[in-house]
């Protein structure tokens, strides 16, 4: 199989991720922070080491990293935990349903309203598009680091500066960027960063996190046992306990730590360049095919995640993907849970076929893909 | 190590759970329901087979089983998704913070109020204790199947009958019962059953589920991509999509399926009897020690989960557990995230030491534990 669906989840996982998963299922599957016996304490230390790895990568305090089931859960906790009745939210025009459905739900329930700021290939214009939507009650800007459909990235540093100037909390959905594009939350004034563990960070499915700046306080949407302050009927005020109720996915979290080790060993920049080289190759190959429509400029360093979307003739995107599946090539077609992005790039009628190579994808695989498209 | 903390998470996991975890990390780590390629479709089928196993075990439709990070997340989704402004909730006096903190949060935010129904060793009295708290605006009864501290079980069938008579939704927290005590949701009129996958069901940590009756509609607390109805800004109305936003913990879910296979191969009744035999042995041994305080009658079939709590002299429970940790015996001490239960059984000053054997615990291990206590 030629796997070009790394935007859904990265596959394969690095060998050290698999070995660490198995090791942690055997040796770190104890309730950390609840038991005083040796293996429970060791498990807590191991989990904490992953908080440190994430904290170091994105510039957060380790204890401010809270683990979740996935990036969607993290975004729900970040957005709903931030909003008070009467607030106004600004999101980008390329948001995933993990953001769009959340703010839509808040608006439908009369809790907050939202507006959508258009992406522009001109970074300053993108920032202005956000800024001009600010109202007196705007409390939150939520923006994806890069579109999960078209790869284009947002100027996080500039948006963060603007948000800070207005005293507005800034949440970033780093679903397609965390692990491949460098993100410094301090530098970009990001108040809360949400990310999956199983995409560019190479951990297992069932992992995600939100990382929160020191001065950010969140209301909880999930309450429950934390093994701390048990007599207090409120969630503890401090992190990560406040945001981590119930038993964690230990082996998943530890696999995510191994994924970060893998990235450091390879070099994030090396991985990013390899994937951009492949998207470049794919883009050039596709752009020579007169039957193919591409929707954005080719992915470029620091301007895009390594993701391309295309369509063939007037085929429904699913038809093209189905043909590729018959060629043993795995891609995702349709709307990629991002209707806003499809509206913005005029692909809302049939969606797109998405290509996401990884560090494990070779140029030869991409060549085979291009040959299959030629034969379509 | 002698592990008597299976109430936190079961350890070890059965061999087929470990092998299935590794197999699924390699072969089923694809986004089910989003991709049309062969391994994605096979993954979706594998995930569905676990819904069927859970559905069969507890008497729900397979598609009404939604997977979560843990039982806490499931309970939050069940309770918060059920409650409308002005509703009244009744919970039991032995609830875990995964229920207590949830209803407390709802009350603090002016959404719902709650009252607490006392447990009684007389089943009819327990039911009356719930019934007499019913108000015109009572919409929900939430009850644990068995106390996570003291093991005592609630008469679910009788409470369910009473709830049905009054047209009140009935949610059961089966954290310590699912997989070891038989629960038939149809027979007990349970509208929503919440359970962890990693305790008596022998799956990995990072797994839980809520199973929902056909006529039960829940508002969502987590919104996001479902790979279905992507253009709809609302969560789909149908299950499981409505309650499963974002990427699932595939290997965890599949491990949970393997855990259920293990239970069927051993026989749930055999497992339950083995664990009760051990709690009987532990209880008898401890009750002969004049320095030990026990708080409940010994666990009895269909009246209790295989869990015992005790204290030694006037020691803080943590001191006893720490001594046991030095003997390489793993138990949990303190409040077990269940302050209500400690208030009820008058252990709120120092908590308890909790003993939870599993099918992998032997009588010899329990004997060693009793010998250690003798030497204390």
List the helices and strands and how they pair.
The structure is a homodimer of 376-residue chains.
Chain A: E1 2-3, H1 15-27, H2 38-58, E2 65-68, H3 71-82, E3 87-92, H4 97-108, E4 112-117, H5 123-131, E5 138-144, H6 156-165, E6 169-173, E7 192-196, E8 208-212, H7 250-266, H8 268-287, E9 292-294, E10 308-312, H9 317-326, E11 329-330, E12 332-334, H10 339-344, E13 352-355, H11 363-375
Parallel strand pairs in A: 1-11, 3-4, 3-5, 5-6, 6-7
Antiparallel strand pairs in A: 2-8, 7-8, 9-10, 10-13, 12-13
Helix pairs in contact in A: 1-7, 2-7, 3-4, 5-6, 8-11
How would you describe the overall organization of this protein?
The structure is a homodimer of 376-residue chains. The first copy, chain A, has 376 residues and is an alpha/beta fold. Chain A is 38% helix and 15% strand. In chain A, the strands form 3 sheets. Chain A has a 7-stranded mixed beta sheet with strand order 2-8-7-6-5-3-4, sandwiched between helices. Chain A has a 4-stranded antiparallel beta sheet with strand order 9-10-13-12, with helices on one face. The model of chain A has no long low-confidence stretch (mean pLDDT 97). At the A-B interface, helix 1, helix 2, helix 3, helix 4 and helix 7 of A face helix 1, helix 2, helix 3, helix 4 and helix 7 of B.
Summary keywords:
376 residues; 4-stranded antiparallel sheet; alpha/beta; 7-stranded mixed sheet; homodimer; 13 strands
